[in-house]
Amino acid sequence: MTRILFHGGTLFDGTVSEPSTGDLVVENGRIVDVGTGLDGDESVDCSGKWLSPGFFDSHVHVTMDGFDVLRQLTSPFSLSFYLAAQNLKKTLDIGITSIRDAGGADLGIKEAVDRGMIPGPRMQIAISMLSQTGGHGDDWEACGVNVPLFVPHPGRPNTVVDGPDEVRKKVRELIRNGADVIKVATSGGVLSARDDPRHAHFRDAEIAVMVEEATAAGIFVMSHAQATDGIKAAIRNGVRSIEHGIYLDDEAIEMMLRAGTWLVPTLHAPRAVVAAAAAGASIPQSSVDKAKMVAAAHDDSVRRAHAAGVKIAMGTDCGVGPHGSNLDELRYLTDTGLTPLEALHATTSSAAELFGVDGDRGRLAPGQRADLVLLDCDPQDIDNLAGRVRGVYLDGALVSTGAATVG
Ligand SMILES: [Zn+2]
């Protein structure tokens, strides 16, 4: 069996330990040894470089490329599949080897990656977000027509549901269609014109049913949750991660600590909405106003949650912002109080644990899958990370030489 030796690099192991110099040996796609003075049949010279576990983004939308209502109305239906291929490559090129698609990507896209037809990170897919009537995923517009962000098709059902019975049936349908995670909106949001991010959506009985059905299928529930009451309802009913978490009060933070709930801040998203509107994208004024309204509360919530010790996993909502800019989130995380090492931990082993794959990947340790990023800067130098990726490996095989060398 071929032993591939990555030698002489500085290893960031995916935990909050300080990086240190060492070798790493890969056999059959898995890390078999980490130490010093190791040997191998083939070698990759890592001297002067840093090696990290492949990065995770816990919240992306690969079928979406910015939010622009006019462009959405005039884009051919199938274009989004080709966009997904392009976005997956952009994601992989910056060292992200595992993603959760929080709505949009269907089983065909995931299978195309798994079969090696298109390059991309490993995917967990939510397919489509459960939303109540008038909720964040209800695409009814005031003009009286539905303008879906993700057009329903045989692999991607419409998921606007009300009442425990409809919820139960829809979760089962999503699981049948290949969902690896169930996504729900337990509050209003920013980009949906007709709701309010400060209002809770779905009642406890509905959320409990989602979690019950997901648990029976061995998968987790992630919740778009911005309103304080919507956040608490999600935590109370066993949702695994709070996405965005804009209005966290002390009680919500306390509940997250007790339940072990993750926070996926996506600080990138409201910033991207404001920037896109300023650059001329056609975004309803109500959404731009909401993005500005939530920004300060959002940063403050993440700061307090981190200080209290809430588990954080890196997620960006890219698709709202440009794919390939995902690692900007690390700067936003450190701006709210995380150290660079903590931000990197959120982007590797903490996210792996959230995904339920920590036994498989997310750390540089024997037994872990050899999903690796080779960087020519210290990963703690978070501002420059994306342009400093020199190698991305899946199962020990080189799949990208980084964004700097591709078009
Ligand atoms: Zn999202």
Structure description:
With 407 residues, this protein is α/β, with parallel strands linked by helices. It contains twelve helices and 16 strands. It has helices at 69-74, 79-93, 107-114, 164-176, 204-216, 228-236, 250-259, 268-278, 285-308, 328-335, 340-347, 349-355; strands at 3-11, 20-27, 30-35, 42-45, 50-53, 55-60, 96-101, 122-125, 181-185, 220-225, 241-244, 262-264, 311-312, 372-375, 389-394, 397-400. The strands form three sheets. Strands 1, 2, 3, 4, 5, 14, 15 and 16 form an eight-stranded mixed β-sheet that branches. Strands 9-10-11-12-13 form a five-stranded parallel β-sheet, sandwiched between helices. The protein has a three-stranded parallel β-sheet with strand order 6-7-8, sandwiched between helices. The protein is globular, with a radius of gyration of 20 Å. The model has no long low-confidence stretch (mean pLDDT 95). It binds zinc ion.
Ligand set: zinc ion
How many beta strands in the DSSP annotation? Answer: 16
Percentage of residues in helical conformation: 25-40%
User: What's the rounded overall pLDDT mean?
Assistant: 95
The low-confidence runs, each spanning 5 or more residues with pLDDT under 50, are none
Largest sheet: 8 strands, mixed
Topology:
Blueprint: E1 3-11, E2 20-27, E3 30-35, E4 42-45, E5 50-53, E6 55-60, H1 69-74, H2 79-93, E7 96-101, H3 107-114, E8 122-125, H4 164-176, E9 181-185, H5 204-216, E10 220-225, H6 228-236, E11 241-244, H7 250-259, E12 262-264, H8 268-278, H9 285-308, E13 311-312, H10 328-335, H11 340-347, H12 349-355, E14 372-375, E15 389-394, E16 397-400
Bound molecules: zinc ion.
Residues 59, 61, 102, 317 line the site of zinc ion.
